[in-house]
Design a protein that fits this description.
The protein is about 35% helix and about 15% strand. With about 725 residues, it is of the alpha+beta class. The protein has three domains: about 10-40 and about 265-430, Creatine Amidinohydrolase, Chain A, domain 1 (3-Layer(aba) Sandwich); about 45-250, Creatine Amidinohydrolase, Chain A, domain 1; about 435-730, Creatine Amidinohydrolase. The chain is globular, with a radius of gyration of 26 Å.
Length: about 725
């Protein structure tokens, strides 16, 4: 996707985004000058144009409380687990809403009357009748920093999923069934809970539209709402008799929050070694991205997703805990690449790398001013064919019809700054696609970090069984602390990839359970224990779930565990033609539960980054629409994690990480290559929970072979840890 030699935005970038264009017609010049001079508020105050496609505002995956991610230049300190604030948010959920009957621990209810009063006064001053407070940050991040926890601040509801809407006499929070009980406890009487997914309960968009009847104006911070979401909401408001959806440039909740709002993160950024860890240098990545621009005839690519920026430039940060990313944007054209970031976070090594790869560094907030000027240039090119004295088209302007390409998760604010939908095209991100296909260095890193991570988990489960069967009292948080300590001594360890889900008994039935220090449950040898955990290493990201029992499980528990295990094995050994989607593979893992009339209410698998986000799109295994649109490819890394949850009693989940690769088959129907999975997780299954009679001979052979592989790869790394060695031998005995 290059630009024609006669007219390029890439060549215009230094000139347009540095000062102004010298050779545009007088009218175009005046218009660009006016646009460039306008404050951000003016650019972002117009109603949304009704022609952007729909993207759900929020669809959440796992509830996980944030904590800092260690970097080489920032000592790792884990926050107290008693901190009730949760900011985890994702756009990539495959969980189906349900209302849990499991009791929720006592939670604080925050009085919000004064906050709402201040917010409503600001609404009057800004001439809006309803105000939307989404969960998202400006980059549609899965996890958000504390400074972006606006919905929680205004409502008191700390669940990860939800959206708040405030009018002059009403205030609602919409969330799904995972958080009904929690929201009911945390919301004070100023708020009404909209239980999403329940019949006859409106979505927050429907509620907002219905409340806008009579020509009311609805406002939102446009940096927090995807442009496609804004488009559909604007249409709903118009159809319902509302006046407009308007972009309010100053976030009203931030104004209410005032000096109590946590500061914006300023964590340092590090350079990831392209030879040892990244496997591909920035110049190569930029070249490949520009080739995609050529195919799509784009004027440039605007990058707003944080993991995509980090991957593209081989940089890692610590602005959002558990995710080694940093607040940034990027614009890439045929000849130029600009990184918008706080340059004080960059050390000399980072700056040298960016300079060597011909990347210009500009302030983080400059993205909006630059986008306005580039959008104006596109508009000028569309309206007039400018010729110089020799009759040639002005090379400072883009070719007619070219648009800037961006992800469908890009904020409404950026789309407005670029001039609106006439000048942008939402596409599936080529960076996201490239990032999901790991290179050989990244794949080997995934294998090696999972071996080391497996050693830590083997040591942990062995220690845990030894302690509990010896009568030592431990609770869920104390157990998680031990696991973190064991991981922290492994080579290339950076930090956790999400807060450990350490859950016993009935708590294990809560899919998104998060133990709190001082109020969590004690572990019991007579109960199932589920541990879902992962870590960030320089050479990869891990995510493993094991369910164990250190006493005598019930027949029902053993049967349920074995059915889940059979599903895990069935998907692990699946062979499928190239072009198969994760949607098509989902039933492999569910089939044995289905045969008993059972199921689980979450996705079967999600993509995983390479020292990046533990949940990485666009691939995954489940029933989400996206998983039916994107096929698995060689080099993808995904989880396989079927489960079963008996509410109020126990929960079971078994999660392995696998690499997608080509496999040899007797035939190649349709001349297509066939794909399969290579498992990289190296942790034994729980013998006490396996009912051998339910396993087929093929499954037993697979299980024995897997355990032999685990021993071969981890035993020598256990050193003289006699407890771990004895436990490993016991758990991997042949069936």
């Amino acid at each position: 996707m290059s630009f024609s030699s006669s007219s390029t935005v890439s060549r215009a970038l230094p000139r347009i985004v540095g000062a102004h264009t010298q050779s545009i017609t007088k009218s175009a010049t005046l218009r660009i000058a006016k646009l460039a001079a306008l404050p951000k508020a003016a650019i972002l105050s117009k109603p949304v144009s009704p022609s952007v496609t729909e993207l759900p505002c929020s669809s959440l995956y796992h509830q996980r409380r944030i904590g800092p991610l260690r970097s080489p230049t920032s000592p790792y300190q884990r926050p107290p687990s008693s901190n009730p604030r949760r900011y985890a948010h994702t756009q990539a959920s495959s969980a189906r809403p349900e209302e849990s009957t499991t009791p929720v621990a006592e939670m604080e209810t925050i009085a919000t009357g004064e906050r709402l009063e201040k917010l409503r006064q600001l609404m009057v001053e800004n001439k809006i009748d309803l105000y939307i407070i989404p969960s998202e940050d400006a980059h549609s991040s899965e996890y958000i920093a504390p400074c972006d926890g606006r919905r929680e601040f205004i409502s008191g509801f700390s669940g990860s999923a939800g959206c708040a809407v405030v009018s002059f006499d009403k205030a609602v929070v919409a969330t799904d069934g995972r958080y009904f009980n929690q929201a009911a406890k945390q919301l004070d009487n100023n708020w009404t809970l909209l239980k999403q997914g329940i019949q006859d309960v409106p979505t927050w968009q429907e509620w907002t539209a219905s409340e806008s009847v009579g020509g009311k104006v609805v406002g939102v911070d446009p940096t927090l709402l995807a442009s496609s979401t804004a488009k559909k909401l604007a249409e709903k408001i118009k159809r319902s008799g509302g006046k407009d959806l308007v972009a309010v440039s100053t976030n009203l909740v931030d104004s209410v929050w005032g000096t109590e709002r946590p500061p914006h993160p300023t964590e340092p950024i590090i350079l990831l070694d392209s030879t040892k860890f990244a496997g591909k240098d920035t110049t190569t990545k930029l070249t490949e991205l520009r080739a995609e621009l050529e195919k799509k005839s784009g004027a440039g690519f605007v990058v707003s997703l944080l993991d995509e920026v980090a991957w593209l430039f081989n940089l890692r940060g610590n602005d959002i805990p558990y995710n080694p990313v940093f607040f940034s944007y990027a614009i890439v054209t045929n000849d130029d690449a600009i990184l918008y970031v706080d340059s004080t976070k960059l050390n000399s090594e980072c700056k040298a790398s960016l300079e060597a790869n011909q990347v210009t560094i500009k302030p983080y907030d400059a993205i909006f001013a630059d986008s306005k000027i580039l959008g104006a240039a596109l508009a000028a090119s569309k309206e007039a064919s400018v010729e110089d004295a020799e009759g040639e088209k002005d090379k400072s302007l883009p070719a007619d019809g070219k648009k800037f390409l961006l992800s469908n998760r890009t904020s409404w604010a950026l789309v407005l700054a670029l001039g609106g939908e006439d000048f942008v095209e939402e596409v599936r991100s080529p960076i996201g696609d490239a990032k999901a296909v790991k290179n050989d260095v990244e794949l080997e890193g995934m294998r090696q970090c999972h071996i080391r991570d497996g050693v830590a988990l083997i040591q942990y489960l062995a220690w845990l069984e030894d302690q509990l069967t010896s009568g030592v009292a431990l609770d869920e948080v104390e157990a998680a602390d031990k696991l973190e300590a064991l991981r922290s001594v492994q080579d290339h360890y950076v930090g956790l990839s999400f807060p450990t889900i350490s859950s016993t008994g009935a708590n294990a039935a809560v899919i998104h359970y998060q133990p709190e220090r001082g109020s969590c449950s004690p572990l019991d040898v007579n109960e199932i224990y589920l541990c879902d955990s992962g870590a960030q290493y320089y050479d990869g990201t891990t995510d493993t779930t094991r369910t164990v029992h250190f006493g005598t499980p019930t027949d029902a528990e053993r049967k349920a565990y074995t059915l889940v295990l059979k599903g895990n094995i069935a998907l692990d050994v699946a062979v499928f033609p190239k072009g198969t989607t994760g949607f098509a593979l989902d039933a492999f893992a569910r089939q044995f539960l289905w045969s008993e009339g059972l199921d689980y209410r979450h996705g079967t698998g999600h993509g995983v980054g390479s020292f990046l986000n533990v949940h990485e799109g666009p691939i995954g295994i489940g029933t989400r629409k996206q998983y039916a649109e994107v096929s698995l490819a060689t080099g993808n890394v995904t989880s396989i994690e079927p489960g079963y949850y008996e509410d109020g009693s126990y929960g079971i989940r078994i999660e392995n990480m696998v690499i997608v690769g080509e496999v040899k088959t007797t035939h190649t129907f349709g001349d297509k290559p066939y794909l399969g999975f290579e498992h990289v997780t190296m942790v034994p299954y729980c013998r006490a929970l396996i009912d051998r009679e339910l396993l087929s001979p093929r499954e037993i052979k697979w299980l024995n072979d897997y355990h032999v592989e685990i021993v071969a790869k981890t035993k020598s790394l256990l050193g003289d840890d006699k407890v771990a060695l004895a436990w490993l031998e016991k758990e991997t005995q042949p069936y």
